[in-house]
Specification:
The protein has 144 residues and is mostly helical. The protein contains 6 helices and no strands. The chain has one domain.
Length: 144
């Protein structure tokens, strides 16, 4: 914008003054407070993580237990649907659903493989989130 005369300059000054007046200056001795509402799910998130972690050892878990764990995480709205799909990805086509395995270690190996062999950025980010979820669950499981 080019200001070519005093009337334009005065107009800008008047508008600036009006904006400043409408915003209002802080009133002495008056406190302003912001409030934040946290949902019940948010308040209960830590307890829900611990409750789920108490029931599942991600280093010694069966496919059936993993399905129940993922359902609990999803029902509690602790993980996204994308994370749940990555968590539920079968580790083997012929896996006995009751045979225990180390979900955390196999997920970390899968992530390493994807990084080393040019996996897509989205896939790697999703796998990294899943590894973080599993590490969090393992850490909480250790606190029981």
């Amino acid at each position: 914008m080019h200001i070519n005369n005093n009337s334009q300059a005065n107009l800008i000054q008047n508008r600036t003054a009006n904006i400043s007046n409408n915003l209002g200056a802080p009133t002495p001795n008056k406190s302003e407070r912001d409030t934040v509402s946290i949902s019940d799910a948010g308040l209960n998130a830590t307890a829900n993580w611990q409750k789920i972690a108490n029931n599942y050892d991600v280093t010694n878990i069966s496919q059936n237990e993993m399905a129940n764990m993922v359902s609990s995480l999803t029902d509690s709205q602790l993980v996204s649907s994308t994370d749940s799909l990555y968590l539920m990805a079968p580790r083997s086509m012929n896996l006995d659903p009751e045979m225990k395995f180390d979900l955390l270690a196999t997920t970390e190996k899968s992530l390493s493989f994807a990084k080393e062999n040019g996996g897509s950025d989205d896939s790697i980010r999703n796998q990294e989130r899943v590894v973080d979820i599993l590490k969090n669950l393992q850490e909480l499981f250790g606190k029981t």
